[in-house]
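User: Hey, my collaborator sent me this sequence without any context and asked if I could get a structure. I don't really work with proteins. Can you help?
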Amino acid sequence: MEIILTHEQADFDAAGSVLAAWLLDPSRIPVLPKRRNRNLAAFLDDYKTRLPFFTWKTLPKGSISRIFITDTQNVENHPRMSGVHDIIVWDHHPHRHIFPDREENIYENTGACTTFLVEQLMEKPDLHPGRIYATLMLMGIYEDTGSLSYGSTTARDILAAAWLVEKGADLDLMRRYILQPMTDHQQQGFDLLMQTMKTHEIKGKRVITAAADIREISDEFSAVAHHMRDMLNPDGLVLLLAVKTGIRLICRGTTDDIDFGALMRSMNGGGHVRAASGTIPIDYMESADIKDILEDARERVLDALPGFILTTNLNLKEKLEAQIPAAQLELIRRIAETAEQLDMPLYIVGGVVRDLLQDQPVMDFDIVLEGDATRLGKELALRHGGKLTLHPQFFTAKWETKDGISLDLISARSETYAAPAALPTVEMSGIEADLHRRDFTVNTLAIRLDGEHYGDLLDLCNGLPDLRNELIRTLHDRSFIDDPTRLFRAVRFEQRLNFDLEPDTLRQLREQLAGISNLTGQRIWHELRLYCDEEAPELDFSRIVQLGIAGQVHGALDWNEDITKECVRFRETLPEIYWQDQRFIDFEFVESEGPLWIWLSRYSPEIIDSLGDRLLISKRTLHCIRGLAQLRGKLPAISHLAPSEITFFLESLPFESIYCYALFCSKEERKIIKNFMTHWHQIKPHITGENLIQMDIKPGPQMKELLTSLRAACIDSGLPETDEMEWIKSKWAMISRQGSDK
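Assistant: No problem. I've predicted the 3D structure and written it out in structure-token form, which is a compact way to encode the shape of the chain:
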């Protein structure tokens, strides 16, 4: 599979160049990043059903053989890119020598990357891209050349644009989405601002600030603010511009959650919620360093900003009632009514809330309350009957109704860690402490269930913005230190949700990898087994190798594309019917650990033993991993031998290993295993040791040799039952003669 990629925060030139590369060869798959600038995102949303683009999430399964990169020389890494070395770069920026030089690479001096790819399309006389495709490519050229007005525009850009108009590009449609070009002075100021850009997370809002000295630049900068807002798409943008009278502030918002108008009114200015400006007077004659003045102004704005960020009260009553099964919803109402009468605020917390907000089905969840869960449980059982199981030492209770529906009741609690990686000390607490003990912000969301607060969303850790921005973020800098298993969980949620690790969280992860050495083998193995329950475990495994987590578990652990292929085949191969009658195979055991066996069985016996010691792997699991390693090493080599030799080898191994191997091995090997399971393994001679004793053959090595040889003859040549005795007599006579000759 060949794919086409481009840079994050994709603009029209990025998308247009990917589209052109795909039109040159539609066998390639065009992939756009999750982050697109505001105008491109609007266009893609309006015309998504008519465009060919994929994302990493929708990309078909299978290995990637070649990657084309357009409009950039650096793309964000992804686990599925692991092991791919065939990379071709098509870019219009100066060559940065990031990838090896090769003939297929193109670094053209055109105003837009789309231009030189369109030139290749122009050489195909039978190609007619159509209105939407032609318009998107035209927008790519127009955006990067300032509507053909920038000094970097070439004649080639103009000719390519003309060809696209000739092929049906819609100029009226383009004007709905394309930004107006900036003047040369505005472009100069824009470049200065981009060099000082900083991103801030303030009360769950993503705010970008940028500062520049434009005292020698005479132009209007509202268009620059508009351009940066649409390109970067933050919740809020604040530009700090040093002008001759002081620091001019220009603010732009993309939501109504930040009242920039009120903020600027406090700074000698005014405006509206989403667009405002102000001024901080400065006497430059008394100043020493303009950079320091701009940074002081930035800090002043950032200090004031939290007071102008609005908190949104979100109620999820409709989602609760639409997505939770009716029987469980009725149970929640009973519990909430009782909790309200006992003055115990009641919540559902964590992953279930995250799933509700993402419109995912909800089947199982826990109830968290501020108060004594055992007291609430007893009251529920008294009022409604059912079975109650109490665990007061853990502040939990389990209530099962007469209808067999059960829910866990959990007292809100706090956790403290006596030492890194130690199990926490737990105490009953309020909901705020309970939420702050959790791992990642997207898992800290809670919904109130009792009384007039029913359905209210509680977001004390800014999980909602991270959920919307698809980020995995820790709650504090000690998160991975307190509990290094969170290193594994960060990857699990990143891959399951197709989110990104927030940059500071990624930094923490890389700095705190050594904490894995403090974890016991059982805790690490538990986290690795949880990966096997995910939709694509190979993505989790390859990611922990890429991030260095696996290397902290054991230095030998690596990853390559062959392991990925085997794990994918393991998941996608449907068990054939001949397995269904084999009651001695624990299918659930294989499915719960199989991807791990596939990975670990690729190593030498010495490394497997070492991994077993480090991870305290059970004897049963280790036996299966060793069996799988033997299958890898021997079955291909003996596939040409007699059926009996293959049978005796396979019978020496755990049948779970054989089943696991059959799910990812070659078709030829699977055919051998099928013959073994359905035929060879079932063949047993009718003559037994009892018959041989009656012939005065004593139990021992010779009897074992006789019976083994008899079974081999039955398997290999289909020896009839009526001929078994004659075969035994003949074989015994030969063995006896050999004994007498000695």
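In plain terms: The radius of gyration is 34 Å. You can pass these tokens on to your collaborator as they are.
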